[in-house]
C-alpha cells in the first residue's frame, strides 16, 4: 500500500519501508522544482522499498525517470540505500556533504578483514572481554554495510542556497549523527499560512525544515564516534549539541523529519534533546567517581533495556555512543584518562 502525504506547496512525503527495523519506515521527501522533482533521501536498498518508492513517486504525479536530483541528509543506508537505483532509472545527480561522501568512498574501499581487525583492536583497547572480540576475529569474507553505496556526483556546501529553479532551499550543516549530516531549510512561506489555507499545526517560525535524523519528534538519534581514521579525536557529541543550537535558532514553522512524523516547535524539541544529553553526561560523571575502562563505563550506563538483553551488534554501537559522551567530558575537562592504566581507565576530575 502506497503511503504518500501531500504537504502542499509542491512538497510530498513517501513512506518507504525499513525491513526488520523497529523505526518502520524512512520518510522520503519529494520537492517539485522548475527542472523536475528532486528527492530528499531515497530509502533502504530492498526490492519492497524500491516498489514503495516508485509507487509513491507515481502517486505524487511523476515518474521515477523524471527525477532531476537526489539530496542526501546523510550517508546512512536507510537514507542513501536506493540512490544508485534512482540515478540508474533517471540520470539524476546525487548530492551529499563532503564529509559523508568521504565516508562512502572509504567504506567502498575498505577490506572487510582489515576493517574487522581494526574494530577488534579498538574494542580490545576499550577493555572489551574476549567473548565480544572472538566473533570479529573468526569472521571470514562477507561484505560490509554500505560497500556498494553510490558515490555522490556533487557536494552540498554548508549554507549554500541550492540551485533548484523556483525554490529556495538552503543547506544547514548539522554534524553529530554523522560528520556530514545536513538539514535542508525550505525558505518559503508555509502554505498553511496562505490566506484561506488550512492553518493546521503551523508554528510561529519561517519555512519548513527537512531534518533527516538530526531532529526527530520522539527519538534521540545515535551519536557515536565517527568512523574512519581518528588521528585528531573528534567530538561528535559536541558537534551534535552545537547543531541542535543552530537548528533551534532557525526556528522553522514545521519540521519534516526522515522518520516518525512532522512536528512544530523545533526549538522546544532541540532544548529537550540538549537537556537529555546534559543529564546523560551528569550520570557518566557520577559513574566515573571510580576509574572505569570504556567497556566498563558502557556496561554501567543506562540503556533502553538491561545490558544482558542487548544484542551483540548493538553492544558495539553502545560502546561508540559511550565513547562520544566520554570524549565530550574530556573536552569539557570533566573527565580524564588515568595515567599508566592499561587498558586505559578514565575518571571524573
Ligand atoms: Zn542516520
Ligand atoms: Zn535514519
UniProtKB/TrEMBL annotation:
SMART domains: Lactamase_B. InterPro entries: Metallo-B-lactamas, RibonucZ/Hydroxyglut_hydro, Sec-metab_biosynth-thioest. SUPFAM superfamilies: Metallo-hydrolase/oxidoreductase. Gene3D superfamilies: Ribonuclease Z/Hydroxyacylglutathione hydrolase-like. It holds the Pfam family Lactamase_B. Residues 25-259 form the Metallo-beta-lactamase domain. This is MBL fold metallo-hydrolase. It comes from Streptomyces ramulosus.
